[in-house]
Known about the structure:
The structure holds 2 protein chains of 2 kinds.
Chain A: H1 2-15, H2 41-55, H3 65-68, H4 72-82
Chain B: E1 6-10, E2 13-16, E3 19-20, H1 27-38, H2 50-66, H3 74-78, E4 81-86, H4 91-99, H5 111-114, H6 121-130, E5 136-140, H7 146-155, E6 164-174, E7 177-186, H8 193-201
Parallel strand pairs in B: 4-5, 4-6
Antiparallel strand pairs in B: 1-2, 1-7, 2-3, 6-7
Amino acid sequence: MEEMILKLKQEIIEVLNLEDVQPSDIDNDAPLFGEGLGLDSIDALELIVLMEKNYGIKLQDPAKGKEIFKSVNVMADYIQKNRTK
Amino acid sequence: MGQLDYVILESDRAVVSGRVLEHESSGNAMLAELYRAHIADWPKFFKMDTLSKVGFVASELLLKQLSERRCGSEEYISNRAIVLFGTTASLCADKNYQETIQDIDNYYPSPALFVYTLPNIVTGEIAIRNHYRGETSFYVVEGADAAQMAFHLSCAFADDRTESVLAGWVDSTGNDDFKSFFTLIGKDDVEGLEDKIKTILNKTNI
């Protein structure tokens, strides 16, 4: 799981263009939105695309993103359970 | 006739009212270098397309240069308009976005690229940064014509609200290829504006 979390953090940094942010800067349990990384609604859409492109997860209900993107830990757990590739 | 302060930002040079800013890189890397050296407090910069990055950095350098001499009231600044010109509009961002939808087997439209597929987004980025609530426009024109630019900029003062306009040319033909100039125009600058713009244009490669 640790390897998965590190990979996910690297993917998030790359797709969201989080310049000057290192994987170690992202707290596994910290909220991705609202504070910390300062992500916005467009970033949320990019994360939905990331999950589909890299893990084959098609989020049917975008509102579910609020729960899934609660933290890197929660996101990684969701991917682990639902990935198709 | 008073000259206007200006910033010229091109792929391999940055000039602030005649003063050349030092840099080691060029193109997009130069924009990031200038951002880190002179701005550094707006991380959203890194998410912008090239057109918006150029407009953002150029406007920041200009406003930094002017801050000591043109401090206005909150209302004066809030009412500021932004009027920009360019030929290529958002073509560069359009191409980058198209790459994400080109392959039917790898079809993942990027929302972050899509939001920049309009040229006037750069005016919004600058307005948000500076809390400007005045009119914003981006004119897509055939070429940099000082008379045409002066006409549209003069018109911006026709309402009873606008007292200053952040104006300029911004054009990006590739992620590392761009040309721009920015200046700030007050009501008092309208007289002889065409010549003032010509003077700046003559210093650029536009």
